[in-house]
Design a protein that fits this description.
The structure is a single chain. By secondary structure, the chain is mostly helical. It has 4 helices and 2 strands; from the N terminus they run H-H-E-E-H-H. Strands 1-2 form a two-stranded antiparallel sheet. It is globular.
């Protein structure tokens, strides 16, 4: 399995494969190049090479500017997925590492 496919699978599982919220399941149907350029509500989704500061990771972790629903200081938007259980730390770490690694189109490492 490719790491990008696993990222999309994590996002799908996080929303129970539903079409959620105003931005819907924006990742579905995107190829890797489009995903890396994607903006949601005008915000860059990923900063290739910088997982910790990518909006996707911040949104999943509930870090500012996300997390208004969980009491994050300075947050203006809810943690994602809004109104659903949080994504596990291990799955967020997988996404963060993938972004930091440059969003490569490679296979999931053994044991990953």
């Amino acid at each position: 399995m490719k790491r990008f496919d696993k990222v999309k699978g994590i996002l799908d599982a996080a929303v129970n494969n539903a079409q959620i919220g105003a931005h819907k399941a924006f990742w579905r149907g995107l190829d890797l190049a489009s995903f890396k350029l994607k903006r949601v509500y005008g915000k860059e989704l990923v900063v290739v090479g910088d997982g910790p500061n990518s909006n996707l990771v911040l949104a999943l972790r509930g870090l500012a500017p996300f997390g208004s629903d969980i009491g994050t200081a300075g947050a203006t938007t809810r943690r994602m997925p809004a109104g659903l259980p949080p994504v596990s730390d291990a799955e967020i770490a997988f996404i963060e590492t993938w972004i930091t690694d440059g969003c490569p189109d490679d296979d999931v490492p053994a044991g990953g």
